[in-house]
Design brief:
Blueprint: H1 6-34, E1 41-42, E2 48-49, H2 54-74, H3 79-96, H4 105-135
Antiparallel strand pairs: 1-2
């Protein structure tokens, strides 16, 4: 019987912990900023708006961005891609699917999943570029 060496086991536990934390951040971003609001409002022309205010969407986006940046820089550049899109989409489905009387929630879920995955890829790419720049040797003083 083979056993997993302790360093590999610890790394796997660390990966699982990071994934769990980032998933919790993503789900909390949905429930904390957007998942509770179902109220629409009407402007002077009688057009319906909502249910989200601009401040809620910005707050949710910044929360996701902060979690993804921390995860990408402290854990793995594309680590947030492994956890955040699925967790955010699952949280969205929990609040959106039950109230959907037209049956279109799967389309919305796919759009949410794609959008959060693209955001995680973008953050991972930027984090990789930043990490690569930070590790590049300095060329100061060359040519003197």
């Amino acid at each position: 019987m083979t056993t997993i060496p302790p360093p590999v086991r610890m790394r796997a536990l660390g990966d699982l912990a990071w994934a769990a934390v980032l998933a919790a951040v993503a789900a909390a971003a949905w429930f904390g900023w957007l998942g509770w609001d179902e109220e629409y409002w009407y402007d002077a022309a009688g057009d319906a708006h909502g249910p989200y205010e601009t401040w809620q969407v910005v707050g949710c986006g910044l929360t996701l961005l902060a979690g993804a940046v921390v995860g990408a820089l402290a854990w793995r550049p594309f680590g947030p891609l492994a956890a955040m899109p699925v967790a955010f989409t699952t949280a969205w489905i929990i609040t959106s699917a039950p109230g959907d009387d037209q049956g279109l929630w799967p389309v919305g879920a796919i759009m949410v999943l794609i959008g959060t995955a693209l955001g995680a890829v973008l953050v991972g790419a930027v984090a990789t570029a930043i990490a690569g720049t930070a590790k590049a040797p300095s060329r100061a003083g060359e040519g003197l």
